[in-house]
Specification:
By secondary structure, the protein is of the alpha/beta class. Helix content is about 65%, strand content about 10%. The protein folds into 2 domains: about 350 residues, ABC transporter type 1, transmembrane domain (ABC transporter transmembrane region fold); about 200 residues, 3-Layer(aba) Sandwich (Rossmann fold). It is built from 18 helices and 11 strands. The N terminus is likely disordered.
């Protein structure tokens, strides 16, 4: 699928997206603790800058003592230098430690927020409405959030450190470079704060060149995240369906498809490393050239005896700190580009989720009502596909509490869409569905879902493991001929791959016996069972759950024999 690349410009759109993501945490209940941690981070950054200033002064005294051959002064200066260095090491270590604490708390809250937005009641509809824009939500929630939070803290604190460094060392550099002239041939020129102006000019030129060379990295990184996720998703999908692929002898096609997706990764990678090469060549050259600038400018004054070796050293250190602070954008450009891509993907994800919710709330689709009644009613129900194509119209039916009704319809979208509509996750269509508000409902799809974890987790789902005693779980297993699994409740495995299709369907009926719902809605959940087992599970529902309402939606007329009433559904017709 072609991807429309995002703009590399840091414009108002970027500011809006940045604010929408940042306020999620910093307006949350945990923000108070986050503010305290952030204050400690800021204190650590400022303390480190202060320590670097003291180190520069101490180092100047050390070199002056060496030049003057004063042993006692040298020892004293070294003691001060080592004490300051120890302080800098401790402060630098704990500022990173505190930053990591804040980072994980921020990420934890943001991940919880996005999981709540994505894994909500309308997740299925959101995917159906905007599946193109909502590619790889798993990567956006796992990788993009981690990248966004880490870079948000790292870049903001490093920018603060750069500003503090500039303020702290600018005065030192101005003072040092105001005591000696700039010599050009036989002429000398006195320029107040000479080295400060050199650092500013060098930084401005470097920043402009860096942005010109590296601005394509934003769009390339945006593409990289998607291409990598598409390739990884294809591999996971093959792993989850390896049996079906093997039975179809489709390995060659799957491999070709995976290689095609990986080719997109490789193409993007070449673009990335080429852009990074060009930017690295520029920034490395800028850094190397900048290292000799203070020596070239200060050397004539030292040779003329107007500066001591300690002053030259201190000038070099101060220039390096000021120049580094002014070149923050140059040094951080690659990380900013990757951060920008993460922000774009997360913000677009949020926008699409909000848009889908708005469309569903304002849509004139199927109205789902939880009513104070004991009956399920379909009132002039029309069913359509997400693109608006109508597949069934004017469906009217009433299923009273305790009744067992079979809806017999054609295979395809009508049957499954009706099942989803009754579950409240299919808004595409017209009319309304009334469901008893106080009823406990259980929906059994044709393809069962088995969560990751132990077999006990799979048996209790959607309730947490431990909701039902093991004795009841084993009893349910025995009733549906899964007794051979009763001793494996504590085993963790990929049960959706380990169990056969009919075993998975029998497991879902064991769940129904455990949960004892008031309403059981079935979408061909016995399709893989033989006739004897199909009859057995329906008999079990009648015997063990005599008060439960059972609504089976199927395209197999034979299922109707296990129900009291039969409704026929044809595309475009009412039952």
């Amino acid at each position: 699928m072609p991807l429309t690349r995002q703009s590399a410009v840091f414009d108002l759109r970027f500011v809006r997206h940045l604010w929408s993501l940042t306020r999620v945490y910093w307006t949350s209940p945990d923000a108070k603790r986050g503010v305290m941690l952030l204050a400690l981070c800021i204190a650590g950054e400022l303390g480190t800058v202060y320590g670097n200033v003291r180190l520069a002064v101490a180092q100047s005294h050390v070199f002056d003592a060496v030049q003057n051959k004063e042993a006692s002064a040298f020892l004293t200066a070294m003691e001060i230098f080592l004490a300051v260095a120890l302080m800098v090491v401790l402060v630098s270590t704990y500022r990173i430690y505190v930053r990591n604490i804040l980072q994980i708390r921020w990420r934890e809250h943001l991940t919880d927020y996005f999981l709540g937005e994505w894994m909500g009641p309308h997740a299925y509809c959101q995917r159906e409405l905007h599946h193109n824009e909502m590619d790889n939500p798993d990567q956006r929630i796992s990788q993009d959030i981690q990248s966004y939070v880490a870079s948000a803290l790292g870049l903001s604190l490093s920018l603060l450190s750069a500003v503090a460094t500039l303020v702290s060392f600018a005065g030192i550099l101005w003072t040092l470079s105001g005591t000696w002239p700039l010599r050009l041939g036989a002429h000398e020129f006195w320029v107040p704060g000479l080295m400060m102006w050199v650092a500013i000019g060098y930084a401005l030129i470097s920043t402009w060149l860096t942005h010109r060379v590296g601005r394509s990295l934003v769009s390339i990184n945006f593409d990289r995240l998607r291409f990598e996720a598409d390739f990884r998703y294809a591999l996971v999908r093959f792993r989850d369906h390896v049996e079906a692929v093997a039975l179809s002898r489709g390995e060659a096609v799957e491999r070709q498809g995976a290689l095609g997706r990986f080719h997109s990764v490789i193409q993007n990678w070449w673009q990335l490393i080429t852009a990074q090469r060009n930017l690295t060549l520029l920034t490395s050259g800028i850094g190397q050239a900048n290292g000799i600038v203070p020596l070239l400018v200060a050397a004539p004054a030292f040779f003329a005896g107007r500066m001591t070796l300690g002053s030259v050293t201190e000038t070099g250190i101060a220039y390096g700190q000021v120049s580094g602070a002014l070149s923050w954008f140059v040094d951080a450009y690659q990380e900013i580009a990757a951060w920008r891509a993460s922000i774009e993907r997360l913000a677009v994800f949020c926008e699409v989720l909000d848009l889908a919710r708005g469309e569903m709330s304002c849509a004139t689709g199927i109205k789902f009502d939880a009513v104070d009644s004991t009956a399920l009613r379909l009132v002039h129900l029309g069913i359509a596909e997400p693109d608006g194509q109508v597949v069934a119209t004017d469906l009217n039916a009433t299923v009273n509490s305790g009744e067992r009704v079979a809806f017999i319809g054609p295979a395809g979208v009508v049957k499954t869409a009706l099942f989803r509509a009754i579950a409240g996750i299919w808004p595409f269509g017209s009319g309304s569905i009334e469901m008893p508000a106080k009823a406990h409902s259980l929906f059994l799809p044709q393809q069962p879902y088995l969560p990751m974890g132990t077999l006990r987790d799979a048996a209790c789902y959607p309730a947490p493991a431990g909701t039902f005693p093991d004795e009841r779980i084993r009893e349910g297993f025995e009733l549906v001929d899964l007794g051979h699994l009763a001793g494996r409740l504590d085993e963790s495995d990929a049960w959706n791959e380990r169990l056969s299709g009919d075993e998975q369907q029998r497991l879902t009926f064991a769940r129904a016996l455990l949960h004892q719902p008031d309403w059981i809605v079935i979408d061909d959940a016995t399709a893989t069972l033989d006739e004897a087992m199909e009859k057995r599970v329906y008999d079990l529902l009648a015997q063990k759950l005599p008060k439960a309402s059972v609504l089976s939606i199927t395209n197999r007329p034979g299922v109707a024999q296990y129900h009291q009433r039969r409704w026929m559904i044809a595309s475009g017709a009412a039952p």
